[in-house]
């Protein structure tokens, strides 16, 4: 049988004659499948999946709340200063469960008041209350914030900046102007400070991570490359110097002890000789 060469699909889109190599293609974000020839105009439109957008925003806010709750618990965690790190000798005299409970207390409060985490939390709260430039449904420039969407800080100060959502307000705002919602949360910009909240949020976390790495290093870092590592190295050197001094002191004391012992022996010998002489003279 004779084969027939394929022909590109031809159509007119918004007055512009267009061709595609396949009958199924994407144009302006729409996936289009051409089924049959027609001379009549075809109109198609889209609508916002409000539920999907709402779920994404709620998930973003919940993740934020969960993170600041964990961070706040760390920078406010109680310290137990009487629970020092256990030595190998101390562990040898303890049961495994006792060691576990002790070390849990010893590690508690390690990040209490940590300046890097505290600064990051303050910056994140500021980002969540900031405004982003967008446009309303008529194309007029506006400033929009999470508060405009029904997302606000809880009234309970013990929540330390957690957000609460009025889903009815959020749903209405999504239906009214979905592009503004995208600009507020998802917009990207070469200058992160001009991007959406998610980009600012991500940038702040990355900056905080860099600061923490400079101070505490990473799993692959060597001690010379971060502050705590250099401190540990200096402490090791101080311990070595102290141990060296102890050995020198020990050696000096042994020499003094030996000299004193020899002096006592000589004194005893001289005393014996003296007593012998005195006894012999009588």
TrEMBL record:
Q: What is this protein called?
A: Flagellar cap protein FliD
Instruction: Please provide the Gene Ontology terms (biological process) for this protein.
Output: bacterial-type flagellum-dependent cell motility; cell adhesion
* Source species of the chain: Neobacillus cucumis
Superkingdom per UniProt:
Bacteria
InterPro entries reported for this sequence: FliD, FliD_C
GO annotation, cellular component aspect? bacterial-type flagellum filament cap
Q: Which PANTHER family match?
A: FLAGELLAR CAP/ASSEMBLY PROTEIN FLID, FLAGELLAR HOOK-ASSOCIATED PROTEIN 2
Q: Please name the Pfam families in this protein's record.
A: FliD_C
Enumerate the spans annotated as Flagellar hook-associated protein 2 C-terminal domain.
7-268
What are the record keywords, sorted? Cell projection, Cilium, Flagellum
């Amino acid at each position: 049988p004779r084969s027939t060469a394929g022909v590109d699909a031809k159509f007119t889109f918004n007055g512009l004659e267009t061709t595609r190599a396949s009958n199924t293609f994407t144009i302006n974000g729409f996936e289009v499948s051409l089924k049959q020839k027609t001379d009549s105009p075809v109109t198609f439109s889209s609508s916002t999946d409000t539920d999907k957008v709402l779920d994404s925003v709620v998930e973003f806010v919940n993740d934020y709340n969960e993170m600041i709750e964990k961070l706040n618990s760390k920078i406010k965690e109680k310290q137990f200063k009487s629970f020092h790190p256990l030595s190998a000798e101390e562990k040898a005299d303890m049961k495994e469960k006792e060691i576990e409970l002790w070390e849990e207390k010893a590690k508690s409060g390690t990040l209490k008041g940590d300046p890097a985490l505290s600064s990051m939390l303050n910056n994140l709260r500021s980002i969540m209350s900031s405004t982003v430039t967008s446009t309303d449904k008529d194309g007029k420039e506006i400033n929009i914030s999470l508060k405009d969407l029904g997302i606000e800080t809880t009234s309970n100060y013990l929540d330390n900046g957690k957000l609460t959502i009025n889903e009815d307000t959020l749903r209405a705002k999504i239906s009214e102007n979905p592009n503004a919602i995208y600009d507020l949360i998802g917009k990207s910009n070469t200058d992160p400070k001009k991007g959406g909240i998610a980009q600012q949020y991500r940038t702040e976390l990355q900056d905080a991570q860099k600061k923490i790495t400079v101070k505490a290093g990473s799993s692959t870092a060597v001690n010379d490359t971060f502050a705590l590592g250099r401190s540990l190295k200096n402490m090791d050197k101080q311990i070595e110097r102290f141990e060296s001094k102890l050995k020198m002191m020990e050696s000096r004391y042994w020499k003094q002890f030996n000299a004193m012992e020899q002096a006592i022996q000589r004194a005893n010998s001289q005393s014996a000789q003296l007593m012998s002489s005195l006894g012999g003279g009588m």
